[in-house]
Amino acid sequence: MAADEQLSDDELIARIAAGDRDAFAALYRRRRPDIYRFALHISGSPAIADDVTQDTFLALIHDAGRYKPDRAAVVPWLLGIARNHVRRSLDRRPTVSLPDDESDAAHTLAVDADPLSGIARRQHVMALRRAVLELPVKYREVLVLCDLQELSYADAANVLRCAVGTVRSRLHRGRALLASRLRGADEALYRTPVARWML
Amino acid sequence: MTRSSGESDAISMLRRLGQDVEVPSADPEAERRLLVAFDTAWERKRVRTLARARLWRPVAAAALIGLAATVAWTITSRSGRLSRRAPSRPLVTTDFVLWPGAAELPAFESGHLLRMEMPASALPSLGLVAPSAQATVQTDVLVGQDGLPRAVRLSPDF
Question: Which pTM does this prediction carry?
Answer without folding.
Answer: 0.59
